[in-house]
Amino acid sequence: MNIIEAEALVKRYGSVMALNGVTLSIRQGELFCFLGPNGAGKSTFLLILCTVLKPTAGKVYVEGYDVTKDPDAVRQRVGIAFQEPKIFWRHTVQEMIDFHIAICGLGRAEKQRAEEILEILELNNLRHRRGLELSGGQQKRLEVARVLIRQPRIAIFDEPTAGIDIHGKHVVWDEINRLKASGSTVILATNDVYEAERLADRVGILDRGNLVACDSLPTLKTLVPRGEIVELILSDGAVHQAKLLLEGNDNILECAIASNTRLRAYVRHGYYSVPQILECLLRRGVEVRGIKMIEPSLDDVFLHFTGRGFVEPEG
Predict the structure, then answer these.
(1) Structural domains in the chain plus CATH codes
(2) What pLDDT, in 10s, does the model give residues 282-305?
(3) Contact of 155 with 143, CB cutoff 8 Å
């Protein structure tokens, strides 16, 4: 059963097309992840979904309610942890949690869960610290905590672990999984490939406002051209030259620039191709700083559909 339906969704900011006719559905009880670089349109979609923004064109339905015509019904079902935490700078952590519980009309069970969530997210010792005294990672954990405490039917997290250390990321991921297991539908936006691969049931890849792919992780990975992947680490500025040199090799299916120093070659016979690749590049004076075989990832799916990695090469 689909809990969310988006139909030909468009959002413009002046001449900028933030969302360009996005159509998708999200199933009840799944963890759906929007993956894409900064500016791809992820946050715009989420802000429309939770009624903060209105679409320029198209429709979005949450459990059958139109986000434009029935915003109150949508807000009762949706809770969001914003990309930029909404902090009351002069209030303490405890005061902000108490205010959240009161304004959402939460009861005794949620108050007990608040105690548990504050402990798990390592905010318990910060109860009396004011918002302006919190670090960026602490603010982010507080923003996430508010959604975890409420346990909405549809829980939205916009880059929930940005600015959080590795240990904290794993704690947040575990709690998001626990929220899903409790029955919430979870929608998450991230530009972290590992985060998407660790959490998502299905992934929608956004690029410059366009939904370029949407499916389960195993299915998306099968969309990468058949063959093995050789990743090359090159000197700065050498990726374009290396790409041109390798694309004429019959054993190479495709080359894609992953960053200003990383080039990926999709090849027919990986280990046999490595010596050929090295010989081709070294003979033409291209400095190769590293070379390895890798498994296909969501980054490769993004490369396949857009021709570039999440970190766009300079120049």
Answers:
(1) 2-218 (3.40.50.300), 225-295 (3.30.70.100)
(2) 999 999 999 998 888 888 888 888
(3) no
Distance, in Å, from the CA atom of 52 to the CA atom of 13, rounded to the nearest integer, reads 14
Q: Which residue has the tokens 């990832």?
A: 297
Name the phi and psi angles at 99, rounded to 5: -65, -45
Cβ atoms within 10 Å, residue 72: 8
DSSP string, 157-183: EESTTTT--HHHHHHHHHHHHHHHHTT
- Tell me the CA distances in angstroms from 218 to 107, 215, 223, 308, one per residue in order: 41, 8, 9, 21
What lies within 8 Å, CB to CB, of 133 at 6+ separation is none
Neighbours of 151 (CB within 10 A): 18
b/e burial code for range 164-189 (CB count within 10 A of at least 16 → b): beeebbebbbebbeebbeeebbbbbb
Model confidence pLDDT, tens digit, residues 183-213: 999 999 999 999 999 999 999 999 999 999 9
